[in-house]
Amino acid sequence: MNILTDSFPTKIKIENEIYEINYDFKNCIRIIEAYEDEDLTIQEKHFIMLNRLYKTVPKNVEQAIIKGIKFLNCGEEGTKDTKELSRIYSFEKDSKYIFSAMHQTHHVDLSIDNMHWWKFCSLFLDIGKDTTFSNILNLRQKKNRGKLSKEEKKLFADSRDILDLNYQKEESEEVSEFMKLFNDGGDEERM
Fold first, then answer.
1. With 0-12 CB in 10 A as exposed, 13-18 as middle and 19+ as buried, what is 140?
2. What is the tens place of the pLDDT at every residue in 143-158?
3. In this structure, is residue 22 part of a structural domain?
């Protein structure tokens, strides 16, 4: 398929039957997030994809999964082992940076635009280098390759909540930060 000359797909053909799909980028991101959720089994991930992507789940579930994943890959066959790929972004964790980068680079307001998944992916792949999101990706790639400078290592350590995809604050850390803010605010009011 050539996205310059052909229309984006809105249906998937399985065994001579045509199935309408929910092709909006927001829906597809939710499916991708399910596939990234380590707490879900592969069967649960496929179930979510089938029920979110297809308006009517096809009879041939195996083909529906194969073709659904191909759709999510923008028409490409899923040949690479995803465990070998180092993840450098998360639609969930990086959502505000992706949102602003798409606006800054393409002048697209993702809060109001309904956009086909393939169009979103094409724009996403061409996010400008002068965005915060691009800088975050650059630092993550350097860390994965072991190429961070001394200053970048410090920045990464100081900003783990933003830069480290696997970092999650401990509940006691969050409570501690809240109490610090609460106590600081309380002192100012008493003055």
1. buried
2. 999 999 999 999 999 9
3. yes
